[in-house]
Design brief:
Strand 8 and strand 9 form a beta hairpin. The chain has a 9-stranded mixed β-sheet, sandwiched between helices. Helix content is 46%, strand content 12%. The chain has helices spanning 14-26, 28-35, 46-62, 68-77, 84-98, 106-133, 138-150, 182-187, 208-221, 235-247, 258-265, 284-296, 321-339, 384-388, 429-458; strands at residues 197-202, 225-230, 271-276, 303-307, 343-348, 376-381, 391-399, 406-413, 418-421. The protein is built from 15 helices and 9 strands. The chain is elongated, with a radius of gyration of 30 Å. It has 459 residues and is of the alpha/beta class. It folds into 2 domains: 4-169, DNAb Helicase, Chain A (Orthogonal Bundle), CATH 1.10.860; 182-425, Rossmann fold (3-Layer(aba) Sandwich). Helix 1 (14-26) packs across helix 2, helix 1 (14-26) packs across helix 6 and helix 4 (68-77) packs antiparallel against helix 5 (84-98).
């Protein structure tokens, strides 16, 4: 039987050890937690021990975690005492680390490594206690065991101003997903980024569900994995809308072009899961559990669509509906951050938005505060006349990554889910609404004049 001093990570394999070291480099808080119990000699390969040694030396000297650029400089200038073979192995490993690809099974790596290291420290404490037992030093034995049990506890107290200094100067990767509308991508720095919440606001029948399908279809065509939750329509109906949006075949002609549609969609690299829940039967926690099940099948979403958030059930019942809605949107934003992917949803306007030329934030139904947590909001307005001419307007109401308050005319053909955003006009929302009010007044005057003339002729 091996002594605890001789145990290392060899039984977990080389890949495990490399992923562990990469995690220690990128995750400062995990490194802090492991520093109490980790010993570089737990690593089987010398090039990994050298890498950790240089990382630890920098942290000790500068009281901060190094950036990729700093680590590259360290490995170029501080390996002279090593053989050429070891130098090459360390540098080759750093090249693999610097790609910053997602670390597979990172939770397993962290849990397993921490558990292993804590057990080694506990074994060491037990052996030390055995010698103390001979002198009946019971209080000291208790201190030794208690001290070992406290090692490796989660010590993430938040962003450390000094230790995390380098992180402030790293480029933040939003990894935005395109909306499929160049105009919107341009003003939102590429679309909706990971961990961000986007909201489409529109009155009933204006096409908010169609807009969500458009956004999902663009991601699928770009090779992304999309989960589309529907709380109003059948899953097959939503999938049919994707068929129409992706292929251009009209909704009423889908059955006639079944084979052609399949030929077009079968080679798309992206993946789409449509999950249907009855209205108000699912909460954000329900969605989270479903996503955990998908994770078991190696399906990781690049985008989540919820049609629509107002139809989700709150995690608890509140006296006022607006409070329930606010918590739902907050939970959705939290889900986006947790899964590091964009989440798109929709919200319905109140009656004032039904025939508005431009829907503004004031027309949002029930809870204005629910949009405080959103990163990007655009409204969709289509009057009765707009629907007959396949036209309408969107209003960029909120944009954390660029300008807002912009109005764009749109072409929208709901027969095949085709939505195009046209160049903006120079008109403001007030100017557009003022013109609409004048047209409405003129229409009413004409109707009144006709009525008055008819009454005279009748008399």
């Amino acid at each position: 039987m091996k002594n605890f001093e001789q145990e290392d990570f060899s039984r977990f394999g080389k890949s495990f050890q490399e992923r562990l070291v990469k995690t220690l480099f990128y995750d400062r808080t995990f490194h802090d937690q492991m520093s109490d119990v980790f010993d570089q000699y737990f690593l089987e390969k010398r090039y990994l021990r050298i890498f950790i040694e240089k990382l630890s030396e920098y942290r000790e000297e500068y009281k901060s975690h190094p950036s990729i650029e700093t680590m590259a400089t360290i490995l170029k200038t501080r390996l002279d005492e090593e053989t050429e073979v070891i130098q090459k192995q360390v540098k080759d490993f750093f090249v693999r680390v610097a790609t910053n690809d997602e670390i597979e099974d990172i939770d397993y790596i962290k849990t397993t490594a921490l558990d292993f290291c804590k057990k080694q420290k506990l074994k060491e404490a037990i052996m030390k206690s055995a010698s103390l037992l001979k002198s009946s030093s019971f209080d000291e034995i208790k201190d030794v065991i208690d001290g070992a049990l406290k090692l490796g506890l989660d010590n993430d107290h938040g962003y450390d101003y000094l230790l995390d200094f380098e992180r402030r100067f790293e480029l933040k990767e939003r990894n935005p997903q395109s909306t499929g509308w160049k105009i919107i991508d341009d003003i939102s720095k590429g679309g909706l980024g990971r961990g961000e919440l986007g909201v489409v606001i529109a009155p009933t029948g204006a096409g908010k569900s169609m807009a969500l399908v458009h956004l999902g279809a663009q991601a699928v065509k770009a090779g992304k994995s999309v989960v589309h939750y529907t709380l109003e329509l059948l899953d097959t109906s939503v999938a049919s809308r994707y068929d129409s949006c992706i292929t251009g075949v009209g909704l009423k002609n889908l059955f006639s072009f079944k084979e052609m549609i399949y030929e077009q969609v079968k080679d798309i690299e992206g993946k789409l899961i449509v999950k249907e829940y009855p209205t108000k039967s699912a909460s954000v926690e329900t969605l989270r559990k479903h996503l955990e099940k998908l994770k078991i099948t190696d399906f990781k979403p690049d985008m989540i669509i919820v049609d629509y958030a107002d139809l989700l059930s709150p995690k608890r019942t509140y006296k006022e509906k607006r409070t329930e809605l606010e918590t739902i949107y907050e939970d959705l934003r939290g889900l986006a951050q947790e899964l590091e992917c964009p989440v798109w949803t929709a919200s319905q306007t109140n009656r004032s938005g039904l025939n508005a030329e431009v829907v503004t934030m004031e027309a949002i139904s029930e809870a204005f505060n629910k949009c405080f947590v959103a990163d990007f909001i655009f409204t969709l307005s289509r009057t009765i006349n707009d629907k007959t001419t396949n036209s309408g307007r969107i209003f960029v109401a909120k944009n954390r990554n660029g300008p807002d308050g912009l109005v764009y005319p749109i072409f929208m053909d709901t027969s095949n889910i085709k939505i195009e955003i046209l160049p903006a006009t120079n008109e403001t929302v007030d100017e557009i609404n003022e013109k609409a009010a004048k047209r409405q007044q003129e229409t009413l005057r004409e109707k009144y004049k006709k009525f008055k003339d008819g009454a005279k002729n009748g008399s």
